[in-house]
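Data availability (excerpt). The following record was deposited with the supplementary files.
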Amino acid sequence: MTDRSAGIAISIFAKGEVFQDFKKFLASPPVLAKSIKGHDLWLYLVMSKHAINAVVVQEQGKIQDLVYYISKVLQEVETQYQMIEKFVLALITSAQRL
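Predicted structure:
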């Protein structure tokens, strides 16, 4: 595929309904919800090679509302941690910021 034909393919894709829906989704980021007293809070920890993330959500029925989000880019030394060490780092970072 040449650069010109790739540009044409992208142009055709950009006019499609799927692309328009995707643009709407990206343009409306999720808003943090206020936590409601008496409802359980859930903490999800996510670790990758270069970052750790934590998300606090609150369940209302089958819907989970985003309450708080934490993200940290790992320093060079931290990228060499074992996965369990990254998990503990994510947990400690979450506890400190909450």
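Summary of structural features: The mean pLDDT is 81.
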